[in-house]
Amino acid sequence: MDTSPKPRLILLCGLPGSGKTTLAKRLAAEIPAVRLCPDEWLADLGVDLFDERMRARLERRFWEHAQDLLRLGQAVILEFGFWERAERDEKRSAARALGVPVELHYLAASVDELCRRLEARSRTGGPGAVLIGRALLEEYAKLFQAPDAEELGLFDVPPPGRCG
């Protein structure tokens, strides 16, 4: 039986503090998969995590790289947050055009829980440990388009024995 990893695209969807990086690291080790996390790269390069222009450029470059990796048969995890349905639809369609299954892992949590997690993360430091206050998080929550059951049904399900 062939146990080598199969190409697939995994999109992690959620607000800051929802657990995207924690899940991505676990999945990357289990599958294995290449994990692309803009927050970690921006922090490592000394770029302000709130520099939207730079983030957009980096995410475009990551997407080009992800497509190359998928064509080469590699599994890829994108930790972009995917706040808008249009962005999720675009990635799903493009990956399917490459003949690759696409999983969407939606990580939901209340604003109170997100605030608690973000405060704890900012105390411990590390990549992505920027302080995001309640007011900003509430603004983000207004912009976030959570996937509904119909949308979730458009994505592939994780293989048996592995769920996110």
Automatic annotation (TrEMBL):
In Swiss-Prot or TrEMBL terms, this protein is called: Kinase
One GO molecular function term of this record is: kinase activity
The record lists the lineage as: Bacteria, Bacillati, Actinomycetota, Actinomycetes, Kitasatosporales
The family database entries (Pfam families) matched by this protein are listed as: AAA_33 (PF13671)
State the UniProt keywords alphabetically.
Kinase, Transferase
